[in-house]
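Moderator note: this is an archived Q&A kept for reference. The question asked for a predicted structure of one protein chain; the sequence and the answer are reproduced below.
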Amino acid sequence: MWFESKVLFSTHSETAIGTNCSKSDVSVFDFCHVNQWIVFEPNVTTYNIGVRILNDIQAENNEFFTVILSNPENIVFGHESSHSTTALVSITDSFDCKWT
């Protein structure tokens, strides 16, 4: 019998400014927020997911956002008592901003 395994993948702004990217003007934002369930099929142990990085109009130092895996169902995060895990992501500015 197969039990569905899934985890909620989401992003959270730290110093980087995130947006839902449904707006027409994304020139002042650094990345597109993600908030979605990742469902693992039987025998699958890895999953690739992307976060869209935006080239805003400001030359900046490195900025950061957090990736959060939470609400696991039939998944263990290293410790059986852990209900979430996080990673800090750095955005390095390309400094080739387009001014309009």
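Archived answer notes: The first strand starts at residue 5 and ends at 13.
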